[in-house]
Amino acid sequence: MSTYTYNPNATAFVIGSEFTLLLAQDQTVTNSTTLVSVPDFNVTVGRNGRYLLEYEILFDTPAAADFKYSTLSPVGGTATRYRALAEGVTDAATAATSVLAAEAAVSITGGGTSGAARYTLFFENGGAAADQGVLGFQFAQNTADAGNTIVLAGSRVTVRSY
């Protein structure tokens, strides 16, 4: 089974080589387009690891701010497959966009204020020592706004290692 970083504010359910991290408390960003990490979703990945991650991110955001997200990865990591679906917004054309932090963050726009971003990522890690590290989820406002953009408690990530 792979190792993972466990935060006591999240709940982890482990079955074989699969586990799910559940966000126990809301996390908020206000008036900022700078991506911030959700530590409860940090997964420690080893060299030559292969992982299938399924994210379900529930969010609230002011209509003017919208929502953007990305996945932070170690140096040698590669997203070889990626598929996204967003609900509760009018523009969710994200399916062809890489979600790793080295690429542009995925923006969900269109004036929605409550929604869900679901995406699946197949991640392969390199074999060098520098390739070990944390695979994490980040989010921010797409346009800075004085209102709160919130990743809601109940959001989850399920991880399978191969």
Total number of β-strand segments?
Answer: 13
Question: Could you give a short account of the major beta sheet?
Answer: 8 strands, antiparallel
* Stretches with pLDDT under 50, minimum 5 residues: 1-7, 89-97
State the CATH topology. Jelly Rolls
Distance between the termini: 9 Å
User: What does the overall shape look like?
Assistant: elongated
Secondary structure tally, helices: 0
Name the CATH architecture. Sandwich
Summarize the amount of helix as a percent range: under 10%
Just give the CATH class. Answer: Mainly Beta
Radius of gyration: 15 Å
How many distinct domains?
A: 1
**Percent of residues in beta strands:** over 45%
**SSE ordering:** EEEEEEEEEEEEE
What structural class do the secondary elements suggest?
Answer: mainly beta
Mean pLDDT over the residues:
78
Can you lay out the helices and strands and say which pair or pack?
Layout: E1 10-15, E2 18-23, E3 27-30, E4 36-37, E5 43-45, E6 50-60, E7 67-72, E8 78-87, E9 106-108, E10 114-124, E11 133-140, E12 148-151, E13 156-161
Antiparallel strand pairs: 1-2, 2-13, 3-12, 4-11, 5-11, 6-10, 6-12, 6-13, 7-9, 7-11, 8-10
